Every structure is written in structure tokens, then in C-alpha cells.
Amino acid sequence: MSDSSITADALDFLEGNYTDKLPKSEPLVRVFVLDNEIQAQVIHGLLEADNIAHNVECYRDLAYDGLFQATRGWGAIITRQQDAKRALLLIEQAIAEF
User: Fold this and answer.
1) What are 31-82's pLDDT values in tens digits?
2) How many CB atoms neighbour CB 73 within 10 A?
3) Single pTM value for the model
4) DSSP string, 12-73
5) How far is 36 from 5, CA to CA, in rounded Å?
6) I need a labelling partner for 2 at 20 to 30 A (CA). Which of 30, 64, 82, 84 fits?
């Protein structure tokens, strides 16, 4: 399946709130590299349900037709440093259940 079918609309599940949930004044940590959009949706839902503030960073770049996603992953989960351990524990538990 070609990656070119993914557009900016693929992030609709985040309702436009995926980039500015975290304060810029606090240390941030990239806690997990995402493999695909489905994984992003599931993890986003888990973190929201547990009230862990986070950003979903998508590496999709239309100009390069997914080049960065092929080398860096679909995207990443970013949290505040103080929430990183709790977020990673939730993510690891969810992945272990799949």
C-alpha cells in the first residue's frame, strides 16, 4: 500500500489539538516512536483517558512523499518530562496486550 494515500486529514482524530497541549516552558521528552496512524490513535486515546498531556508529532511531509516516515517512523509521542515514565509505562502495557 502506498503511503501517498495519507493526507493531512489522516490526523483528524486529534481534532487539531495535537501540537499545542504542552507548555513550552517545561522540559519535554520524546517517549515513543510511532509505527503508524492506528498506533498513534490508540496511544493518543490511552494517554488522554489517563489525563497525560501529550503531543502527537507526525513526520509526514507531503513534499518528500513520506521519506522521513520511512526512516524515522510514522511520528512520535511527546510528553512533559515529569509525565514521561507514566506515559511510557502505559504505552508499554498497551503494546504488550496486542
Assistant:
1) 999 998 899 999 999 999 999 999 998 877 666 666 666 667 888 999 999 9
2) 15
3) 0.74
4) GGGTT-SSSSS-TTS-EEEEEEESSHHHHHHHHHHHHHTT--EEEEE---GGGTTHHHHHH-
5) 13
6) 30
